[in-house]
Amino acid sequence: MKYIRLTKEQLEELHPEFVTFLATQSIDKKEWDELKKNKPEIAEQEIDVFSDMIWDRAISNVNFIDHFSKNYIFLFKCVENTVYSYIINSNVSNVDFLTSDGINWLSENIFSDDIEIKKGKKDISEDRNGSLFSIIKQGGIISKGELFTKLEHLLNQ
Predict the structure, then answer these.
(1) What would the pLDDT profile of 22-69 be if each residue is shown by its tens digit?
(2) Cβ–Cβ < 8 Å for 147, 73
(3) Per-domain residue ranges for the chain?
(4) Both ends of the chain: CA-CA distance in Å?
(5) Is 128 left (phi over 0), alpha (psi -120 to 50) or beta?
(6) 136-150: per-residue pLDDT in tens?
(7) How far apart are CA 31 and CA 19, in angstroms?
(8) Which of 51, 59, 76, 94 is 20 to 30 A removed from 2 (C-alpha atoms)?
(9) How far apart are CA 111 and CA 90, in angstroms?
């Protein structure tokens, strides 16, 4: 597997797509039920292939990923095979970016000495989707890029 298997809930949500996927493999409901019962390892392989296909399609459309922790915010913008990043670090130990108070504090102190902002750029042409999935697996959240765009605008004024 390139990614991770979809959860039972995700598979249930994607049931129509999974049925279509099985049909492209020439597997109907009766055959699927037999596979699950008599050859569960093959059924698992089919689920893995489907999961990879869904993850690959989803990650191909990712443009922004945000990752929050107590003292850091990582913002990523994905343009083709390049990832641009901002890393925001609070030098104040009691600030928690996982809370609304922490985010409010950040907006009030963004240009103070208590905040450190680093800018980065990385080529991910080797395995774009794998690189982005790695960020997601570590806690990154696919976003619309509001924070990245606002920060970029603020820093370029």
Answers:
(1) 999 999 999 999 999 999 999 999 999 999 999 999 999 999 999 999
(2) yes
(3) 8-60, 64-155
(4) 45
(5) alpha
(6) 999 999 999 999 999
(7) 12
(8) 76
(9) 11
Name residue, tokens 């990245």. Answer: 148
Pairing of strands 72-79, 64-68: antiparallel
- Joined together, the tokens standing for residue 38 give 């008599």
Radius of gyration of the chain (CA): 21
Pairwise CA distance, residues 143 & 133, whole Å: 14
Q: How far is residue 66's CA from residue 100's CA, in Å, rounded to a whole number? A: 15
Q: Which residue has the tokens 């970029």?
A: 152
- Indicate if the pLDDT at residue 157 is higher than 80: no
- Kindly state the tokens that stand for 114: 């208590």
Token pair for residue 93? Answer: 């130990």
As given in the structure block, the two tokens for residue 156 are: 């370029």
Residue 88 · residue 115 · CB < 8 Å: yes
Sign for the CA dihedral angle at 53, 56, 62, 67 comes to positive
Smallest Cα–Cα separation from 105: which of 118, 119, 91? 91
* Spatial distance between the Cα atoms of 98 and 106, rounded to a whole number of angstroms: 11
